[in-house]
Automatic annotation (TrEMBL), chain A:
Family matches, as NCBIfam families: PQQ_ABC_bind
Upper classification of the organism: Bacteria, Pseudomonadati, Pseudomonadota, Alphaproteobacteria, Hyphomicrobiales
Keyword list, A-Z: Amino-acid transport, Signal, Transport
Family note: Belongs to the leucine-binding protein family.
GO biological process assignments: amino acid transport
Protein name in the entry: ABC transporter substrate-binding protein
Annotated SUPFAM superfamilies: Periplasmic binding protein-like I
Organism (species): Methylobacterium variabile
Pfam families: Peripla_BP_6
Domain named Leucine-binding protein: residues: 106-228
UniProtKB/TrEMBL annotation, chain B:
Keyword Signal: yes
Official protein name in the record: Membrane protein
PANTHER family noted in UniProt: DIHYDRO-HEME D1 DEHYDROGENASE, PROTEIN NIRF
UniProt superkingdom: Bacteria
Keywords linked to the UniProt accession: Signal
Species in which this protein is naturally found: Methylobacterium variabile
Stored Pfam families: Lactonase, YNCE
InterPro entries: Host-pathogen_enzymatic-act (IPR051200), Lactonase_7-beta_prop (IPR019405), N2O_reductase_N (IPR011045), PQQ_b_propeller (IPR022456), WD40/YVTN_repeat-like_dom_sf (IPR015943), YNCE-like_beta-prop (IPR048433), YVTN_b-propeller_repeat (IPR011964)
Signal peptide (residue range): 1-26
Domain (YNCE-like beta-propeller): residue spans on this chain: 24-102
Gene3D superfamilies from the UniProt entry: YVTN repeat-like/Quinoprotein amine dehydrogenase
Length: 416, 327
């Protein structure tokens, strides 16, 4: 299935700075030590959709190199280690952009993926929506290309529609809402008021939240759809404000949970509820993989390296792309090989671990290829907690208290 | 810093000092407080904090100079190493450590200093007297642990993201070999005979013992503690006793120090200490071992012979490193 948006988008193909000059595609490691004779090269691919140019003033616009800058850091980190084991790393990034008038027809994600595969790349990181991820996985089935999903949170990609060659670095919605629910249970804020946005992702996020509430003994005290439009984006008073203010009246709840993946209204809700209640979910207190305030577990060093490289703060998508490309590098160092088949087998091995500045090693779940990882619970300016919370135990690892566990998985992996 | 950082020369000096009928302890403990931007001074006889000295920002690695009169403290966020007069507690000068110094170790002669620059993927070789950088050795990502062979010929640096122990020739400043260990290696400690190198891996949860001659990992020590998840077992600081029989391993958020038989590699005991224990240091007579406990803001004192924790001493915010002077 192809994302309905795809036809309206065109590819600019090989992108910007990285492909500009042959020597510029990877950060060359400084003076390699004597041993680095001829290094074997691993080329890593990234297919992403740069955020559309923001309006003339948007304080929180996503940077155009979101995700790409994470890839550059991973290539640099891999290369630094690689020169000690005679491996070099290079990045091929494909930016898919909307068609501009008079330009050739848009390139689809699958075209871009086939193109990279034809150039010999065997590891592709996708920062794309779920439908495009699936389309790429199906187009490359059996080609020996390993795919990393760095952004789509959809549980179906880890469930009924899982694919043997597709690994997920982005946490699923179920992991995100489990992390949040553990925190709420830990705080004993048990009565939830769930406010769900109009978009498909919002509904899926709300479903995941309901499942998590049940799993961790929380109660859905009230539920309302959000029908007042993108008030968070309006950033000011509008005729609907009065209505939006009173719709929380007369409810008995501990905490408001907003399901708004697009960020249209969630940031409007805090301080606009009738009763003084905290707001959590996709805005307010959120579960995420990375945040500027994370500095423990060596994260400060990664934050600094990233900022020097990109001139901005590292965002969750940058971290997720970084983690995917570091997984390939890590496997290559551990196995001392650049052979794609051996690396794919090493990454899929349940014993494979990846350090990722979270205090514990990360690994891929064998039943659905989801990366096990602690999730940060953050408010805009502070780290509040890290899930799994203390005391949530599991027979394998506390990390498996987040997301879909082996007994409940709908994923049936068959080797392509 | 007991026998670790400035090893053989210090050990010799120490033996001489001991023979010269020094009192049993009469040593001073210095603890760097990473978030307190200070050094806590503890008297070993009374086990009391006698002073707290302000130093540069984010003090981490810490070591005592050859004769105990000077203390070296990495001020990581100020990109320098502060030299503190241990009589007055005042910073007498600052050294050009290169960016973000974390751990360092001195040549047996007391000079030069080998500094891990955590943010910059290099080891800086620094002449202390001339305050001059002699060499910058490129290593892996996030260099941290620093070990020096007792004869001073081989420097080992561990890089936390590259997950290797880099063997560096101290004459040529060339990396001569790289040994892959488990994730996030934090600390490197040579045995006194120079034959074995112990490297802790914080995220990997193991300690690798490397044969220095063949540069092969001969043993990976793992830890199991009832009631503590494997994820909480995060080895950081490692210290070997001078007689080579025992190793002490700080296990981070497991809040324990493991006692390991250094010959059979069996874990003999887990000693409960403060929270998030990272670095360790022996008193010169090796009767006591001090641990820095980051989140409980204290130092635990271990009786090495009895293998018991005898005291905890509150220090500054987020204690990181510890060094002990025979003075």
């Amino acid at each position: 299935m192809v994302d309905p948006r795809t036809p309206t988008l065109a590819a600019l193909g090989l992108l910007a700075a990285l492909a500009a000059a042959p020597g510029a595609r990877a950060q060359q490691a400084p003076t390699p030590p004597a041993a680095a004779a001829q290094a074997a090269e691993i080329r890593l691919g990234l297919i992403y959709r740069p955020a559309p140019a923001p309006s003339s003033y948007d304080a929180q616009a996503a940077p155009e190199d979101e995700g790409l800058a994470g890839a550059r850091l991973a290539i640099q980190d891999n290369a630094t280690t690689g020169r000690f084991v005679r491996q070099s790393y290079a990045l091929d990034a494909m930016a898919l952009r909307p068609a501009a008038p008079g330009e050739p027809p848009p390139q689809s994600a699958t075209d871009a993926a086939r193109d990279l595969a034809a150039r010999g790349l065997r590891f592709l990181v996708l920062a794309l929506p779920a439908d495009e991820v699936l389309a790429v996985a199906d187009a490359l089935k059996g080609s020996g290309v390993m795919l990393f999903n760095a952004s789509a949170p959809d549980d179906r990609l880890r469930g009924a529609e899982c694919r043997a060659d597709l690994f997920h670095v982005a946490p699923s919605r179920a992991m995100q809402t489990d992390a949040l629910a553990q925190f709420l249970a830990f705080m004993r804020w048990r009565k939830l008021f769930l406010i769900t946005g109009p978009q498909e992702g919002d509904k899926l996020w709300a479903e995941a939240m309901k499942r998590s509430a049940k799993k961790f003994g929380l109660q859905l005290a009230a539920e309302r759809p959000w029908t007042f439009g993108p008030l968070a984006r309006a950033r000011g008073d509008t005729p609907t404000r009065a209505e939006a203010l009173v719709f929380t009246r007369g409810l008995d709840y501990d905490v408001a949970v907003v399901a708004d993946e697009a960020g249209d209204f969630g940031d409007y809700v805090p301080f606009h509820t009738v009763d003084p209640r905290p707001v959590v979910g996709t805005q307010g207190l959120i579960p995420t993989t990375w945040h500027p305030t994370l500095e423990v577990w060596g994260a400060a060093q990664a934050q600094n390296r990233f900022r020097r490289l990109a001139g901005r703060l590292m965002r969750p998508l940058d971290y997720q792309v970084w983690a995917a490309m570091r997984a390939v590098g890590e496997a290559a160092f551990q196995k001392k090989t650049t052979d794609p088949a051996a690396l794919a087998a090493a990454i899929a091995d349940p014993a494979f671990t990846l350090p990722g500045y979270k205090g514990v090693a990360l690994s891929f779940r064998p039943w659905d290829h989801q990366l096990r990882q602690p999730l940060l619970l953050v408010q805009p300016q502070a780290l509040v907690a890290v899930a799994p919370e203390q005391g949530y135990l599991h027979q394998r690892t506390p990390l498996d208290t987040l997301g879909i566990d082996l007994p409940e998985t709908q994923c049936r992996l068959t080797k392509s | 810093m007991s026998r670790h950082r400035i090893r053989p020369a210090r050990a010799a000096a120490l033996a001489a000092a001991l023979l010269a009928a020094a009192p049993a302890h009469a040593a001073t403990v210095y603890v760097s407080n990473e978030k307190g931007n200070s050094v806590s001074v503890i008297d070993v006889d009374t086990l009391k904090v006698t002073a707290t000295w302000p130093v540069g920002r984010r003090p981490r690695g810490i070591a005592v100079g050859k004769d105990g009169s000077l203390l070296y403290v990495c001020a990581s966020d100020d990109d320098r190493i502060d030299v503190v007069d241990t009589k007055t507690g005042k910073i007498v000068r600052s050294l050009r450590s290169g960016p973000d110094p974390e751990q360092f170790i001195a040549h047996p002669s007391g000079n030069p200093l080998y500094v891990a620059n955590e943010d910059d993927s290099q080891v800086t070789v620094l002449d202390i007297e001339k305050n001059k950088v002699l060499a910058e050795v490129p290593v892996g990502v996030e260099p941290e642990g620093m070990g020096l062979s007792p004869d001073g010929s081989i420097l080992v640096n561990t890089s936390e993201t590259t997950n290797m122990a880099h063997f560096i020739d101290t004459k040529t400043f060339q990396v001569i070999d790289n040994v892959l260990v488990d994730a996030r290696p934090r600390f490197a400690e040579f045995s006194r005979d120079g034959k074995w190198l112990w490297v802790s891996a914080e995220v990997g949860g193991t300690v690798s013992v490397i044969d220095v001659e063949t540069r092969k990992v001969v043993k990976k020590i793992t830890f199991k503690i009832p009631g503590v998840t494997d994820e909480q077992i995060q080895p950081v600081g490692v210290r070997l006793t001078m007689d080579g029989t025992k190793a002490f391993v700080a296990l981070g958020p497991a809040n324990r120090v493991a006692v390991v038989d250094a010959r059979s590699y069996e874990v003999q005991k887990y000693l409960p200490v403060g929270q998030r224990v990272w670095q360790l240091a022996f008193t010169p007579d090796q009767k006591l071992l001090f641990t820095t406990n980051g989140t409980s803001n204290d130092v635990s004192v271990i009786d090495v012979e009895a293998l018991k924790v005898t005291k905890s001493i509150p220090v500054g915010l987020l204690p990181w490193g510890v060094a002990i002077s025979p003075q």
